[in-house]
Design goal:
Blueprint (H helix, E strand, L loop, with lengths): L1 E2 L3 E3 L7 E4 L3 E3 L4 E4 L4 E4 L3 E5 L3 E5 L2 E4 L5 E5 L6 E6 L2 E3 L2 E4 L3 E6 L2 E2 L2 E4 L4 E5 L5 E5 L3 E5 L7 E5 L6 E4 L6
Length: about 170
């Protein structure tokens, strides 16, 4: 399924969820807005936000029972892909931010893993975090999290940095 122009997924006529059996692509120039209270269930594959496109989600839940399902944010040279997720919950799936991708994950919760691959840049603010993998080449800020039950794992260049500020690491 390709979303080629701006679209809004909202609770029209009592609809509260989208169950996606196939991969979904938000293509160049399009914005997909998902409103509060909506649940997006990924079946097979991924939801991909491509270069020049945007995902804006507020108060939505993203979940899957397929461990290979992911949200992919894949920019390209000269065209950033962006996802702004405010107050969202991610359950059982990963989020991958690739080169020229940007993720703003604000006041959300993750029950999966968030992975950032080489070349991606991301500013991250989470209110609760299970685990996070950060690969070299990404610009990452991790702030205002309760990390007492989770972990932060970094792999890559010894000269790479991760800003860890105002986090709780346990007693």
């Amino acid at each position: 399924v390709t979303i080629a122009k701006n679209a809004v997924w909202s609770g029209v006529d009592g609809l509260k969820s989208f169950r996606l059996a196939r991969e979904v692509y938000v293509s160049d120039g399009a914005t997909l807005r998902i409103t509060a209270g909506m649940t997006v269930e990924l079946g097979l594959g991924a939801m991909t936000v491509s270069g020049g496109s945007r995902l804006e989600a507020q108060g939505a839940t993203f979940r899957t029972t397929n461990e290979r399902a992911t949200l992919e944010i894949m920019g390209r040279a000269g065209a950033e892909a962006a996802a702004e997720m405010s107050g969202c919950t991610v359950e059982g799936m990963g989020i991958r931010v690739h080169e020229n991708g940007r993720l703003d994950f604000i006041n959300g919760a993750s029950q999966g893993s968030l992975s950032f691959f080489t070349g991606g840049k991301a500013d991250i603010v989470l209110s609760s975090l299970g685990s996070l993998a950060v690969n070299s080449g990404s610009r990452t800020i991790i702030a205002y999290n309760d990390l007492s039950k989770g972990s932060v794992t970094a792999d890559g260049s010894p000269s790479a940095t991760i800003q860890l500020q105002n986090n709780y690491w346990g007693a």
